[in-house]
Amino acid sequence: MKSFQMRENIKGFEFGTPIDTEIIYGDKTYGFEELPMVLKFEDSNTYLKFLLGQDDRVYGLGPNMGGINKRGRRYEAYCTDDPLHHEDKVVLYGAHNFFMIQDNQGVKGYFIDFPSRIYYDVGFSDRDAFSIHIHGKDFTFYIIEGDTLNEIVTKFHKMIKKPYLPPKWGLGYFQSRWGYKSEEEIREIHETFKGKDLPLEGIYLDLDYMEDFKDFSISKERFPNFKQLVEDLKEEGVRLVPIIDAGVKIEKGYSVYDQGIEGGHFALNADGKPYVAAVWPGKVHFPDFLQEKTRVWFGDYYKVLTDLGIEGIWNDMNEPAIFYDEDSLDEAVTLAIKAKGKNLDVFDFFDLKDKFQNMGNKDVYYQRFFHRLHGKSYSNEDLHNQYGYMMTKSASEGLRKHLGKRSLLISRASSIGMHAYGGIWTGDNSSWWSHIELNLKMLPTLNMSGFYYVGADTGGFGGNCSGELLCRWMQLSVFTPLLRNHAALGTKPQEPYAFGEEVTGINRKLLKDRYRLIPYLYSQLLMHHRLGGLMFTPLSFEFTGREALDAEDQLLVGEEIMIAPLYKPNAQGRYVYLPEEMVLVNFKEKPEMMVLKEGVRYMAYALNELKFFLRKNKLMVYGEESLNVKTMRQDQLNVLGYVDTKANFTLWNDDGDSFAYEEGKVFKTKIMVEKLASGHYDISVNSQDEYLKIIKVMLIDSDNNIFEKEVEVSNLK
Ligand code: MIG
C-alpha cells in the first residue's frame, strides 16, 4: 500500500496497481500514513467494514433506488441495463463510488477509484454495519475530511474535473418517444406543439431514424431529407437530438464496420478476434473506447451528424447492454433442440426457459471481451464502468472538434469522471407514481457525483402514463436541468397534448413556467460548474432536527428555493416541512406569495399550479415565458424576494453556447435589496450582461406586505 496526501485534508491509499481511470486530479505527496481501518484481502477480493451507530447516515452512491440516506439497502456499482426499476433493484445504469458517512463524531467522505464491481451493503444485512466488497485488489481509496457534508462534496468536486455544461438551449423542453419514425411524423409533432402554443426546444430521435440500427446512418426511406428537416426546425428554434448506440453492426461495406476492423478499433475476444455480441442491429462489435485512437476515430464520426446540422446526441446502450452473444445463443438453442418432443419436468422446463429469458447482459459476457489500455489487455469486467464513460468522452471530444461550440450530450451508462463530458438521463423508469419520488431523491445524489445536467424520462418510460401523472411529474421536472418527456415503444401516447384539452392547458402553463425558470436554473449550472457543490440539496444537509432529516421528499434548489413536489395519485395537496419561516410562491403569471411559519403544514397543490418556497432574506430571479430559448427575452428579468432585513443574489449568465465560460467569461448580475427602517426598500442592480435593462422586483416581508418596483439596470463592464 502506498499512501499520499492531497490538499485540504484528503488522503489517498493506493493498493496494488490501480487502473488509470482519469478521475482524480491534483498533486500527491506520498507519505507513510496508515489506513485508519482494516481491509481484508481474500482471493482476488477486498472487504472493508464501517460500524454504524443508531443514527448514522450514509449519502451518495449515484443513481440508485432507495432514499437520499442510502442506509438499509444493498447496492452494486457495475453499470447495468435494467429497464425495470423495481424497489428491490440494487443497480441501475451507473457506478458512482463516492459516499459520505455522518456519525455523531462528524462527517467523512470516501471515494473508491476502481472501475469494476463493488458491492455495498449499507446496514441491510446487519443494521449496524456498512460492508463493502470490492471485486479486486487494485484500487485507490480516498478519505476526505471536512466539517460539513456540503464542504466534503465541494472538496470532492475539486478533486475531479469540472462538470459538463450544456448549451443554454439544453435547458429547454424536449419531446421524445421511441417510435417516432419518419420525417412527416417529426414535422407533425412540431406543428402540433406550435398549433397548441406549447413550448418546444427539440425532439429526440430514437433508433428509427437510422438505417438498420447502424450508427451514423440515416434511413433514406423514412428521413429522405434529413438535412432539410434539421435546418427547417432549427430555423424555428427546434433541434433534433439523435441517438447513437454502442454496438456497431457487422456488415461488410458499412464504413464504420470496415474502418473499425481495419484500424483495430473493436474490443477483442480471447482469441484476439473482434468480439461478437448482439444488440439492435443483430450481431455487433464494440468499439474499444479505452483506446485513445478509437475514441478519436469514433468521435470523428459524429461529424456525419454535425454536418447535417445536429448539435445534440444521446448515447445509449453503453453499459454496454448485450442481448445475447454467440455462445449463449448456441447453448440455449441446443438445449431447445434437445427438449423437442420431450416431457420436461419442472427443473428442465425452467432451465430451458431461463436460458432464453436470462440471456441479456450475462456476467460472463463481460469476461469474454478485452480492451487495450496503455499497452495492456483487460477484460471488460476488469474495467467495466469505464466503458460508457469513455464512449461519452469520445463523443464529447468529437462533437467539440466538429461543432466548435457546446453540444447537448447525455449518456445512459455513467461513472464519476464521465461527468466532465456529458449529462445523464436516469434510464428506463416507468410511468409509476413511485418513480416521481425516486426521480426527486436521485437529484442530490447525482450532484454529489458531479453530475448536474440530469433528468428522468418525464411521464415515465415503460408502462402507460395518465394525464394526472404527467402533470405531477412535470411539476418536479420543470426544476431539473434536463427536461425530457420520453416513452417506450408500444406505450400510450404521452406528449403534453395526448390527454385532452384540460391536461394540455396545464402542461402549457407548466412548460411556460419552465422557461421562466431557465435564467435561475442556468445560473445554477454556471455557478456550480465553477464552484462545485450541490444544486439540489437535501434538507438534512442544511437544517438540523428530526423533521429535516426525514424530509427526503423535499429539496432545496439553489440556496434560495425549496420544492415539495406531489407524487401521489388523486391528492390535492401534501404535507410539507418548513424548517424555517418561508414564503409559499404560487407561480402564477403574477406570482402570489404568502409567508408561512416553520413547522409541518398542509399545502394545497392543484394540478394546474406550480408551487415552491422562497427562503427568508433570499431573492430568486425568473424570466418571461417563451416558446424556446432562442426567443427568450434578454432585456428583462423578474425578481421575487422575501426580505425582512437584506438579501443579495448573483445571477450567472453567459453567451449560452461557446466555451468562453472555461476562461471565466460569464456575466454576473448582482442584485441587492435592503429593507430600510421606513419600511421602504433600497434596491440596486449591477450587471455585466449588456442585454439586460430592466428588473421587475416583487418583494414580501414577514407581515405579508408586498412591494413592487421596476429597476433600471446599471451595466458594468
Ligand atoms: O433496448 O432505443 O434507455 O431511452 O428509447 C432499449 C430504444 C434501447 C433504451 C433507452 C431508451 C430508448 C430505447 N433503448
Could you provide a short overview of the structure?
With about 725 residues, the protein is α+β, with helices and mostly antiparallel strands. The protein is built from twelve helices and 45 strands.
Structure description:
There is one protein chain. With 717 residues, the chain is of the alpha+beta class. Helix content is 23%, strand content 29%. The chain has a nine-stranded parallel sheet with strand order 27-26-24-20-16-15-14-29-28. It has a seven-stranded antiparallel sheet with strand order 3-1-2-13-10-9-6. A six-stranded antiparallel sheet has the order 30-31-32-37-34-35. A hairpin with a 5-residue loop joins strand 34 and strand 35. Helix 6 runs antiparallel to helix 7 and helix 10 (467-477) packs parallel to helix 11 (501-531). The longest helix has 31 residues, at 501-531. It starts with a strand and ends with a strand. Bound molecules: ligand MIG. Ligand MIG binds next to loops. Ligand MIG binds at residues 178, 206-207, 243, 316-317, 412, 427-428, 486.
